[in-house]
Specification:
385 residues; mainly alpha; globular; EC 3.4.23.43
Length: 385
C-alpha cells in the first residue's frame, strides 16, 4: 500500500471522528450551548455517554439505533453525518493528495465540515450560525495564506482568498439588496439597522463602483461611524444608493470593456467588506445579549422584507475564501439551478415554497470543488481567453 492510499484510509477514519463532533455542532450551535461542556449525553434521558457509546457508526449499529440507557430512538442523522464526513474526507484525500496539496487538502476537509454542518442546521432551523460562518471565513483566509506560502496550485492564496470572500459576500448581498427593494416595491426601508446594516451595504455598493473595493467599503463603515456618533440612524436613501448603482452601471457600460468589469468587481467587493464588518459587529452584539438595542428609527422586533437570509451571504464568503472567486461563481450557478428545480417541484406538489438556500450553496460548492476547475477552463476556452 503506497503512501497516498494509506493517507486516504486515514483521512476516511479521521472523517468518521470529525463527523461525530459535527453532530455535536449541529445540535448545540443553534441552541447557543457550549460545544465542549457538558460532555456528550442522551438528549432524551440526559444520561452521560461512555466511550463505547461514541464510536462513529459502530455504536449506532451495535445499539440498534437506540439509547443504551433509556432505549429512546437515536436519529439516523447521526450515522449519516458520520458516514458522509468519512467518505467526504477520503474523497478529498484522493482527489487532492496530502503529499501534493498539504495544508490545502486539510483546508478542503475543513470546508466540507463547515458545509455539512451548516446545511444540517439550515434544514432544521432556517439559520446559519455566525459561530460557524464567520470563523469559517477566517479559516479560509488562514488556509489561503498557507496555500500561497507553500505554492499550492489550484487553490487560492491569501490575496485570492480575500478576493473570493469579499466577492462571495458581495454577490449574494447585492442579490438580496435588489430583491428586497423589489419586494418592498421600491419603498425605503422602514426599519434600518443601527449603527450598521443594509443601508451601509447599499452605500458600499455605490461607492465601490467608483472608488474601488477598499475605499468603497470605507465609505460604508464611515456611514456606520456617523450613525454611532449621532446616536441615531442617518438615513441613506436606497433611491440614491441602489438607483445610483444602476445608473452607474449604465454609464459604465457605455465605455464597455474592462472599465465596467472593474466597476462591478469594486462594487461587489466593497459591499462584501461592509457585510462582513456588519456580520462581525452583530455577532458580538448578540453574544453580549444586546441584540434588541433600539435603532432610534424603527421598532425593535420588526424587519423589512428580505429576499435572502444574511447567513447565506456569510456562507458564500466562506466558499469564496476556500475556493476562490471563479469556483464561487460555479457554486452559485449550480445552487441557483438546483434551488429552482426543487422550487418548481415544491410548487407542483403544493408544498411550502420556502427555500433553504444554504444546502444548495453547499451542494454547489462541492460541485465547484470537484469539477469547477474544468468548467472554468472550458468557459475560458470558449471565449478564447
Amino acid at each position: 500500500m503506497n503512501l497516498d492510499v494509506l493517507l486516504v484510509v486515514f483521512a476516511g477514519l479521521f472523517g468518521l471522528l470529525v463527523g461525530s463532533f459535527s453532530n455535536v455542532l449541529i445540535w448545540r450551535l443553534p441552541r447557543g450551548e457550549n460545544i465542549a461542556f457538558p460532555p456528550s449525553h442522551c438528549p432524551h434521558c440526559d444520561h452521560g455517554l461512555s466511550p463505547r457509546d461514541l464510536v462513529p457508526l459502530f455504536s449506532w449499529l451495535s445499539l440498534g439505533g437506540k439509547c443504551r440507557y433509556c432505549r429512546a430512538p437515536i436519529k439516523t442523522r447521526y450515522p449519516i453525518v458520520e458516514a458522509l464526513t468519512g467518505l467526504g474526507y477520503a474523497a478529498i484525500a484522493l482527489l487532492f493528495p496530502l503529499t501534493l496539496y498539504g495544508a490545502g487538502s486539510l483546508g478542503l476537509m475543513v470546508l466540507f465540515t463547515l458545509l455539512l454542518v451548516g446545511s444540517a442546521i439550515d434544514l432544521d432551523t432556517y439559520t446559519l450560525p455566525d459561530e460557524l460562518t464567520l470563523p469559517g471565513v477566517a479559516l479560509g483566509l488562514l488556509f489561503g495564506f498557507f496555500n500561497g506560502r507553500n505554492g499550492v496550485e489550484g487553490l487560492p492564496d491569501l490575496a485570492g482568498a480575500v478576493n473570493g470572500a469579499l466577492l462571495g459576500a458581495g454577490l449574494l448581498v447585492a442579490i438580496n439588496q435588489f430583491g428586497s427593494w423589489v419586494l418592498r416595491r421600491f419603498r425605503e426601508r422602514q426599519y434600518p439597522e443601527f449603527p450598521i446594516g443594509f443601508q451601509q451595504i447599499s452605500l458600499g455598493l455605490l461607492a465601490g463602483a467608483w472608488l474601488g473595493p477598499w475605499w468603497g467599503a470605507g465609505v460604508g463603515v464611515l456611514s456606520a461611524a456617523v450613525n454611532g456618533i449621532s446616536r441615531r440612524v442617518v438615513r441613506v436613501p436606497e433611491l440614491l444608493t441602489l438607483g445610483g448603482l444602476l445608473l452607474s452601471v449604465v454609464v459604465g457600460s457605455a465605455g464597455g470593456g474592462p472599465g465596467l468589469i472593474l466597476m462591478v468587481q469594486g462594487s461587489l467587493a466593497a459591499a462584501g467588506g461592509v457585510s462582513l464588518v456588519a456580520g462581525v459587529y452583530w455577532w458580538i452584539k448578540h453574544r453580549r445579549g444586546a441584540a434588541n438595542d433600539s435603532t432610534g428609527d424603527g421598532a425593535e422586533d420588526h424587519y423589512d422584507a428580505s429576499a435572502m437570509g444574511f447567513g447565506d451571504v456569510k456562507l458564500a464568503a466562506v466558499i469564496g475564501a476556500f475556493l476562490g472567486w471563479e469556483r464561487l461563481l460555479v457554486a452559485l450557478l449550480v445552487a441557483v439551478f438546483a434551488g429552482a428545480i426543487i422550487g418548481v417541484v415544491q410548487l407542483a406538489r403544493k408544498q411550502e415554497n420556502r427555500v433553504k438556500f444554504g444546502p444548495f450553496l453547499a451542494f454547489g460548492a462541492l460541485v465547484a470543488l470537484i469539477w469547477g476547475a474544468g468548467i472554468v477552463a472550458g468557459y475560458r476556452g470558449m471565449l478564447g481567453l
